[in-house]
Design brief:
The protein is of the alpha/beta class and about 280 residues long. It is built from 11 helices and 12 strands. It has helices at about 1-10, 30-40, 65, 80-85, 95-110, 120-130, 145-160, 180-195, 200, 255-265, 275-280, and strands at about 20-25, 45-50, 75, 90, 110-115, 135-140, 165-170, 205, 220-225, 230-240, 240-250, 275. Strands 3-2-1-4-5-6-12 form a 7-stranded parallel beta sheet, with helices on both faces. Helix 5 (about 95-110) packs parallel to helix 6.
């Protein structure tokens, strides 16, 4: 019945020029900055903010997170009520929360911007299934610089043979809960695609112990966590007597916020499908 209600409401409501959107993971670092920027934008209206059932921010005004005057928008743990009111959902939460919301968004035929990382294979398949009905824009990193780096890595990997070892350095703040990061995995995927090899069979993310000599063609990831680092990523192509290093350093979270908001706007009226920040930014795959 809830699903039928969503369909009927969505079909009866037109979309205006100012898009109604909700934020999932509202109390997180990204959630707070997304709400702050959306609040002062003339393109978006915040209609909902979602947190977990055990969050200390439940039933408080979003101003408790972003400052300013009270907005009348209370933080809730009920995604369905917010989805009914929104045109787009911006989601920086946890894999389990994202999957739950993804299924609701699919029924509602809405836009779902996913910045969450750390999905397993089964969860990835559920997102693909939801994309048959909803507009899903999913990326481990939504900055222009990182997506340009992805294309650079792909081209370098295509140009250099397997005698060039590929190592990825993945540095984030001490509170990041998944490892490797979504950005590091996307960089590894770009390298594998450039070489025309299967990522899963060539990925090496653990080198603890002994007798772990490098295999030709492996793509290695080293994850570092500490301090307040927002995101530093380097891809090292190591050959005989020479190295090529390409890097990206995130100096503030605004680069990700802008990408998330641009993705939400871009997704309106696009129709069902699974897209990435490369599509939004117009970077050729």
């Amino acid at each position: 019945q809830a699903e039928d209600g969503i369909r009927d409401l969505v079909r009866s409501r037109g979309l205006g020029d100012v898009y109604k959107r909700q934020v999932i993971g509202a109390a997180g670092k990204m959630g707070q900055q997304i709400m702050s920027q959306a609040q002062v934008s003339d393109k978006f209206n915040i209609v909902g903010a979602i947190e977990t059932k055990d969050s200390s921010f439940l039933n408080t005004d979003i101003s408790s997170l972003i400052g300013g005057k009270e907005t009348g928008i209370l933080i809730t743990d009920d995604p369905l009520s917010c989805i009914l009111k929104s045109d787009a959902v911006i989601d920086f939460s946890s894999p389990s929360s994202t999957i739950e919301v993804c299924e609701l968004v699919a029924q509602a035929r809405k836009v779902h911007v996913i910045g969450t990382t750390g999905f397993d294979e089964e969860e990835e398949e559920k997102i693909k299934a939801a994309a048959r009905h909803a507009t899903i824009i999913k990326s481990g990193n939504m900055s222009l610089g990182v997506n340009a780096l992805l294309e650079t890595v792909k081209k370098l990997a295509r140009s250099l043979d397997s005698d060039w070892d590929i190592e990825i350095s993945d540095m984030h703040h001490r509170d990041k809960i998944d490892s490797p990061s979504g950005t590091a995995l996307e960089l590894a995927s770009a390298a594998a695609e450039g070489r025309g090899i299967d990522l899963h069979s060539s990925l090496d993310i653990s080198r603890n112990g002994s007798d772990l000599s490098r295999k030709n063609g492996d793509i290695g990831i080293v994850s570092l966590r500490g301090g307040t680092v927002i995101g530093d990523h380097s891809v090292i192509f190591a050959g005989e007597g020479e190295r090529i290093v390409v890097s990206h350093f995130a100096e503030n979270r605004n680069i990700f916020v802008k990408g998330a908001l641009k993705s939400a706007e871009w997704g309106i009226d696009k129709g069902p499908g699974l897209f990435s920040a490369l599509d939004v930014l117009g970077i050729q795959k």
